[in-house]
């Protein structure tokens, strides 16, 4: 496949490609406005990550990363909404591994203002161990949360099995406060600070987290859907040059170009496994009202579908987190709305297409 053929499908009027000969090897340079990213031909020649044949589902019934009860019921709500059967209807082999067995740490005293540090750390250590095991079994892992502190365990475990991963963080919030910048002490607003290597010197030793070594770089991370970012988080994003697309950029460029830019910036070669961490509050609260920190002006259902479909089209989705479904914060009707919309988006990540899917074993009948 030629380089032009490989990338022609993702060109837009505002994206310009040019090839240059450099030191007897080809390099691809893509220009996003005045921002260039250069890719060595050796990366382009790497084997591409291929879609895994089995989805391994694991529940993470945990809510101690924030103060409200209910997020621990997220896995059961999503299962009752048919998340497993909907995926199976696509002809996918789905194995439900049940829930991570979580034991809360008694007398879990705060570390300064950080709440429940030992409980969060212990639960995420178990999740990390589970995810690394499933990824090594060549399963695509779907983690049903649980509050967004779950990303500590899921990304850490994923990185132990596939250290070349990239992270797409779809969320209204940046979740990159450190224990020293957080105004609430809730770890669901800090998970990335425990994972990003460049922030290690800014994160104090936290009880229970001795096992959690930073495992991703800021260059491996991109945000989509931001619209409620704390001042310190904004400083971190700008200081380290983290790729970030708020809803302002979604409105300006459209979801198509945002997704294209985001994927290209973290992985110009298009070969690395993807970890997608999806907080349901990324979507507009009219679509997912049963969540703890809703913010108006979020992704529409169509924008969420498109993002998920494009991730599916890469064939490289390795781990998907679903975070912050909280049925106790809404009416029964709104709980069902949240669960059903979330399930619909999840199926798009795994190949359910709006133009329809032909069953893999379907044979057209003859008269």
TrEMBL record:
Cofactor note as given: Binds 2 manganese ions per subunit.
EC annotation from Swiss-Prot or TrEMBL: 3.5.3.1
A Pfam match: Arginase
Cofactor(s) named in the record: Mn(2+)
Pathway: Nitrogen metabolism; urea cycle; L-ornithine and urea from L-arginine: step 1/1
UniProtKB keywords: Arginine metabolism, Hydrolase, Manganese, Metal-binding, Urea cycle
Identification of the protein by name: Arginase
SUPFAM superfamilies associated with the record: Arginase/deacetylase (SSF52768)
Catalysed reactions, semicolon-separated: L-arginine + H2O = urea + L-ornithine
Enzyme class, broadest EC rank: hydrolase
The species this protein was found in: Lymnaea stagnalis (Great pond snail)
Gene3D superfamilies associated with the record: Ureohydrolase domain (3.40.800.10)
Chain residues that bind Mn(2+): 148, 171, 173, 175, 279, 281
GO biological process: L-arginine catabolic process to proline via ornithine; urea cycle
UniProt family annotation: Belongs to the arginase family.
GO (cellular component) term, any one: cytosol
TM region positions: none
């Amino acid at each position: 496949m030629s380089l032009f053929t490989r990338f022609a499908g993702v060109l837009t009027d505002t994206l310009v490609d040019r090839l240059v000969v450099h030191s007897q090897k080809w390099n691809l340079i893509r220009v996003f406005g005045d921002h260039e990213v250069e890719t060595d031909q050796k990366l382009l020649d790497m084997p591409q990550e291929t879609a895994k044949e089995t989805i391994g589902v694991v529940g993470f019934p945990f809510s101690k990363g924030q103060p409200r009860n209910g997020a621990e019921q997220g896995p059961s709500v999503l299962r009752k909404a048919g998340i497993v059967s909907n995926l199976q209807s696509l002809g996918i082999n789905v194995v439900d591994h049940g829930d991570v067995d979580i034991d809360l740490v008694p007398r879990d005293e705060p570390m300064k203002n950080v709440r429940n540090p030992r409980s969060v750390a212990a639960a995420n250590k178990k999740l990390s161990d589970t995810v690394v095991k499933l990824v090594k079994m060549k399963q695509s892992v779907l983690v049903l949360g649980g509050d967004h502190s779950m990303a500590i365990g899921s990304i850490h475990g994923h990185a132990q099995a596939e250290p070349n991963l990239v992270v797409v963080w779809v969320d209204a919030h940046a979740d990159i406060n450190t224990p020293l910048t957080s105004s609430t002490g809730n770890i669901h607003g800090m998970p990335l600070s425990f994972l990003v290597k460049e922030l290690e010197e800014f994160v104090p030793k936290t009880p229970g987290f001795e096992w959690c070594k930073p495992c991703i770089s800021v260059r491996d991370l991109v945000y989509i859907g931001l619209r409620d970012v704390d001042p310190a988080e904004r400083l971190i994003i700008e200081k380290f040059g983290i790729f970030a697309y708020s809803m302002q950029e979604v409105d300006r460029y459209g979801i198509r170009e945002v997704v294209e830019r985001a994927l290209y910036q973290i992985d110009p070669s298009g070969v690395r496994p993807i970890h997608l961490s999806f907080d349901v509050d990324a979507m507009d609260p009219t679509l997912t009202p049963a969540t703890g920190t809703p913010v108006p002006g979020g992704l529409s259902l169509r924008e969420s579908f498109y993002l998920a479909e494009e991730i599916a089209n890469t064939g490289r989705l390795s781990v998907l987190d679903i975070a912050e479904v909280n049925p106790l914060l809404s009416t029964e009707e709104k709980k069902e709305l949240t669960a059903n919309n979330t399930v619909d988006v999840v199926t798009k990540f795994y190949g359910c297409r709006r133009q329809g899917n032909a069953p893999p074993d379907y044979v057209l009948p003859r008269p």
